[in-house]
Amino acid sequence: MAGALLAGEAAQACTRFVYFGAEGRVITARSMDWKSDVATNLWIMPRGVERTGEAGANSIRWIAKYGSVIASGYDISTTDGVNEAGLSANVLWLVESEYPKFDAGSKPGLTIAAWAQYALDNFGTVAEAVEALRQEPFTIVTDAVPGETRLATLHLSLSDATGDSAIIEYVGGKQVIHHGRQYQVMTNSPVFDKQLALDAYWKQIGGTVMLPGTNRAADRFARASFYANAIPKFDDPNRAVASVFSVIRNVSVPFGLNTPEEPNISSTRWRTVVDHARKLYFFESALTPNTFWVDLKKIDFATGVGTRKLDLGPDQDHVYAGDATDRFVAAKPFAFLGLKP
């Protein structure tokens, strides 16, 4: 592992946005874009589990306060998910990321593979998470992407049932937090401050006049930002979810499309939508005909119940439809990627 930026080509190009609907309804959507199978499965993570930052002797340690449903990456990391309090967490690629140096004198280490899980385990709201993270209780420790030599360079987004939102990045080795309801959209490069500046330009033009149509991160940011606020505020929650899905599909990359001259543009593998009020976690694979959901209200997250897994198969090609909550089966928890002992 290392705590520094590895310059090089990015292969993940995801999008995340938050929708504000009628009667305070909040929905968060994200796409996962990757050049190859990211080996994602869904997991039920119970509360009360003891975890470590997996960074050797100097690791942060905690006990999960909240249970969660998460989407794994390679079954060694948490890439996306929502906890029983309604807090959503998503990690997306940001090649400009540069993390603080990690050594014996640093604050306790936290593997980047468990960054999102740490948030889901410990916090019920964005405000609570931001208050804690501003104290910098850990040092993020990154590692190579499985099967590759380059380091994982990620940023983290959080959203909750109130519509509050936060974007957490590491720029020049320092943590930068953007906190507020106005931070509805996150994509990839450049860093968030520059994305906001680019988005301001497109807002001056107006989305009904012209929107950028390529798969580049800045263009996806502009489209998601416009459509997230242009779609109707439906009274019917199912209509609202359908509308949100239509936007996240609009900013997805067609399956099979990889752009050699733009290595940060890769096929959309899957999409998730979180209905924070109803505590429903929707999942849609690019390779299956159906969307399905997990109902967190039906899950027993009690300590001792155990971890459960929904096997999505290679390239997430296993077909599920409707409510798949009862399709999870008991499974040994996966180990977060970290420093070898």
Describe this structure in words.
This protein is α+β, with helices and mostly antiparallel strands and 341 residues long. The protein is built from five helices and 20 strands. The protein has helices at 115-122, 126-133, 192-205, 217-230, 237-250; strands at residues 15-20, 26-33, 42-45, 50-52, 61-63, 68-73, 77-83, 88-93, 109-111, 139-141, 154-159, 165-171, 174-179, 185-186, 268-275, 280-285, 291-295, 308-310, 322-323, 329-330. The strands form four sheets. It has a nine-stranded antiparallel beta sheet with strand order 13-12-11-8-7-6-3-18-20, with helices on one face. The protein has a seven-stranded mixed beta sheet with strand order 14-1-2-15-16-17-19, with helices on one face. Strand 16 and strand 17 form a beta hairpin. Helix 3 (192-205) packs across helix 4 (217-230) and helix 4 runs antiparallel to helix 5 (237-250). Mean pLDDT is 89; it is low at 1-11.
SS element count, helices: 5
Q: What is the overall silhouette?
A: globular
Rounded to the nearest angstrom, the radius of gyration is 19 Å
Indicate the low-confidence ranges by residue numbers: 1-11
Which short descriptors sum up this protein?
341 residues; alpha+beta; 9-stranded antiparallel β-sheet; 7-stranded mixed β-sheet; 5 helices; disordered N terminus
Task: Describe the structure concisely for a colleague.
The chain is built from five helices and 20 strands. With 341 residues, the chain is α+β, with helices and mostly antiparallel strands.
